[in-house]
Amino acid sequence: MASPAQGQGGTTSSSTQTQTLPFPLPLQDRVAIVTGSSRGIGRQIALHLSSLGARLVLNYSSSNSSPADSLAAQINATSASSALPQAIVVRADISDPTQVRHLFDSAENAFNLPVHILVNSAGTLDPKQPSIADTSDESFDHVFAVNARGAFLCAREAANRLKRGGGGRIILLSSSQVAALRPGFGAYTASKAAVEAMTKILAKELKGTGITANCVAPGPIATELFFSSRTEEQVQKLIEESPMQRLGETKDVAPLVGFLASDAGEWVNGQVIRVNGGYV
């Protein structure tokens, strides 16, 4: 005689089968702002956070919106059907406090949710690699305006507006140049050193909010920005110096950012994490 949990022939009836529900994605419906996300490391970070369920605000600052628009279309085409898009595009110069506020306003208005995550990936350098003695006032000011002032303005806005009580994440990108201290990158390295110092202080100042602040410092990564400032000979030398015998790729950086942005990364706070394959 079949048991109550079995149908005719001794098979388990469909009414008693356990329904296996999918686990929610780590960043499901959390809003993440990624600055400088139209290309390079920022673009890969945005794609990775999207794969973890985050809703993305893709920031760019140039007059050409095509790369950012293309990325948003790619993310939205692969996302689950929803009344809201998974990614929007917002143009903003992060060295301008008014535009940084607009960036956060746009995020909140588009998704009707608080912002959980800021990833500041926007950055610049002087491709001529001048020595400090040959660095012009204009070059120094531009590099610091984007890299240091921009990071400060974004971090300040995030410190005041990110969701409190858990899940709030501030992730600022620095550079392994801060540890390598190579000639030709004086202004750039100094601007990134400022970012690292601010991150460590910010983590302590956010005590009690549940918001973490960390720095990710990539080494040589094969991006447009990287190749724009180096000769083929310089690139080959960096490859030979690397214990991994290759340049880093954007996909080497994005998973670490995804970890720090998730609940699994909550206990990592006030840290500078160098992602460089042993470069330094």
Give a description of the structure:
With 280 residues, this protein is an alpha/beta fold. The protein has one domain (25-271): Rossmann fold, CATH 3.40.50. The chain has helices spanning 40-51, 66-78, 97-111, 137-161, 177-180, 186-205, 224-228, 232-241, 250-261; strands spanning 31-35, 55-60, 87-91, 115-120, 169-173, 212-218, 272-275. It has a 7-stranded parallel sheet, sandwiched between helices. Strand 2, helix 2 (66-78) and strand 3 (87-91) form a beta-alpha-beta unit. The protein is globular and about 50 Å long.
CATH third-level topology: Rossmann fold
Give the number of domains: 1
Number of helices: 9
CATH class: Alpha Beta
List low-confidence stretches. Answer: 1-21
CATH homologous superfamily assignment: NAD(P)-binding Rossmann-like Domain
Distance between the termini: 71 Å
Q: Outline the biggest β-sheet.
A: 7 strands, parallel
Average residue pLDDT: 92
Radius of gyration from the CA trace?
Answer: 22 Å
Number of strands: 7
- What form results from the Cα inertia axes? globular
Please provide the ordered H/E string of secondary-structure elements: EHEHEHEHEHHEHHHE
> Do you know the CATH architecture?
3-Layer(aba) Sandwich
Helix content: 40-55%
Explain the layout of strands and helices.
Layout: E1 31-35, H1 40-51, E2 55-60, H2 66-78, E3 87-91, H3 97-111, E4 115-120, H4 137-161, E5 169-173, H5 177-180, H6 186-205, E6 212-218, H7 224-228, H8 232-241, H9 250-261, E7 272-275
Parallel strand pairs: 1-2, 1-4, 2-3, 4-5, 5-6, 6-7
Question: Summed up, what is this model?
Answer:
The protein is an alpha/beta fold.
